[in-house]
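TASK: fixed-backbone design
INPUT:
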């Protein structure tokens, strides 16, 4: 089935010239064409159309994902929030007090991957040693790439600390490339960098809509 994703602005990769009313035509797990909405719509008149507000870009890469998912606990909302609070829990002493089990790490990682998808993340860099965490990541649809260098403490927002939004993009959008992208409710890349990845309204991986802001 063909699906045509279109937004007010399309950025196909780092340094690319933004295209107004751009679109990505998706078939299965691949982008088959990328270009102006009018041109792609005419070429595929029977495609399902998903029209998004803002900027459509390649999906983001989260660095330090092993720290984010294997050494950070995300309380289960609403069941644990009263006791533990809503913020992620880090630090050896705090995690030791939680008496973490393999299953509990897996459930936390599942919640963590949902937070990443909600920030336009399509790939994570890290090396996972906990089986339940690896399983949660694989099931989430996120691609796993080797660890990448980073400064400071890893955070859920891949745009934090970047000099440009393009530095956080994972891959490019072109014909034949994986259908792996995100849409952010901003006017351009400058506003995306300023406001961050929580402006994400949709995340697509392998042609599947895995996150949509409600």
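OUTPUT:
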């Amino acid at each position: 089935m063909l699906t045509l994703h279109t937004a007010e602005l399309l950025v196909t990769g780092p340094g690319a010239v933004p295209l107004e009313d751009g679109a990505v035509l998706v078939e299965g797990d691949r982008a088959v064409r990328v270009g102006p909405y009018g041109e792609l719509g005419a070429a595929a008149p029977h495609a399902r159309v998903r029209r998004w507000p803002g900027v459509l870009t390649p999906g983001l890469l989260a660095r330090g994902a092993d720290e984010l998912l294997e050494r950070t606990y995300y309380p289960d909302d609403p069941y644990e929030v009263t006791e533990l609070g809503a913020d992620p829990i880090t630090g050896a002493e705090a995690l030791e007090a939680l008496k973490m089990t393999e299953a509990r790490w897996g459930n936390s990682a599942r919640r963590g991957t949902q937070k990443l998808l909600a920030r336009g993340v399509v790939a994570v860099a890290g090396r996972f040693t906990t089986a339940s965490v690896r399983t949660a990541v694989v099931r989430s649809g996120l691609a796993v790439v080797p660890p990448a260098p980073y400064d400071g403490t890893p955070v859920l927002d891949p745009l934090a600390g970047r000099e440009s939004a393009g530095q956080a993009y994972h891959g490019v959008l072109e014909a034949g490339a994986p259908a792996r992208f995100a849409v952010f409710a901003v006017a351009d890349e400058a506003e995306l960098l300023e406001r961050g990845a929580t402006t994400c309204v949709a995340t697509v991986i392998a042609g599947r809509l895995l996150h949509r802001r409600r």
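COMMENT: The first helix runs from residue 37 to 43.
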